[in-house]
Amino acid sequence: MARENKTKYALLGMLLHGPMSGYDMKKFSDSSISHFWSENYGHIYPILKRLEKDALVKSDVVRTKGKPNRHLYTLTEKGKEVFLEWLKRPADSEIRRNEFLLKLFFAGDLPVRDVIRIIEHEKVRNEKTLGIYNRIGQEYIGKIDKAGAKKFAYLTLSYGKKLASARALWFEEVLQELKGRNDGSI
């Protein structure tokens, strides 16, 4: 059976925050949910057209001086019902694709110094991610008006921070072990 495209639910959820254009949704995604759910314009605009056809959203053209007109999308009552019903269902099992772990799994033929370099690069990326999470907490979550929405946005952020913190500990342990090897073997 084909997997259901969940982009429509991400877009419906964004519209719970108020009317947005496709561009606004991409900015919202990039500044809030992109560390666990990414969207791009190639997904957003076709899904918005389908959501409008299915009467889950409606759009209004906003004329702007000197710029292209904006299509501002608003959640319909039917759209809100569909979204809330989806929220109540258990999540599908996630399919993860992690290139770092794929490389690490097959790294047995590399010299230890090369494996260390790969791990150190990922460690730095993880540290940057933790910094981004801290900024999201201050810049994004601090601006949410609804108490319930703020609480659940915080819980989501907390999940990401705890995973990144656990990864940070793992990097330290693995690097210590690999750097302690004198013979270059794994």
Describe this structure in words.
The chain has seven helices and two strands. By secondary structure, it is mostly helical. It has two domains: about 5-90, Arc Repressor Mutant, subunit A (Orthogonal Bundle); about 100-180. The chain has a two-stranded antiparallel ribbon. Strand 1 (about 55-60) and strand 2 form a beta hairpin. The mean pLDDT is about 90.
Give the topology.
Blueprint lengths: L6 H9 L6 H12 L7 H13 L3 E6 L7 E6 L1 H12 L10 H7 L6 H29 L6 H33 L7
Query: What's the domain count?
Result: 2
CATH topology of the largest domain: Arc Repressor Mutant, subunit A
Quickly give the CATH architecture of the largest domain.
Answer: Orthogonal Bundle
Q: Provide the helix percentage.
A: 55-70%
Query: What gap, in angstroms, lies between the N and C termini?
Result: 42 Å
Question: Which superfamily, in CATH terms, is the homologous superfamily of the largest domain?
Answer: Winged helix-like DNA-binding domain superfamily/Winged helix DNA-binding domain
* Strand arrangement in the largest pleated sheet: 1-2
Shape: elongated
Q: Report strand %.
A: 5-15%
CATH domain class of the largest domain:
Mainly Alpha
Largest sheet: 2 strands, antiparallel
SSE series: HHHEEHHHH
Uncertain runs are: none
Number of E-state strands: 2
The number of helical elements comes to 7
Determine the mean pLDDT: 89
Structural class: mainly alpha
Based on CA atoms alone, the radius of gyration comes out at 21 Å
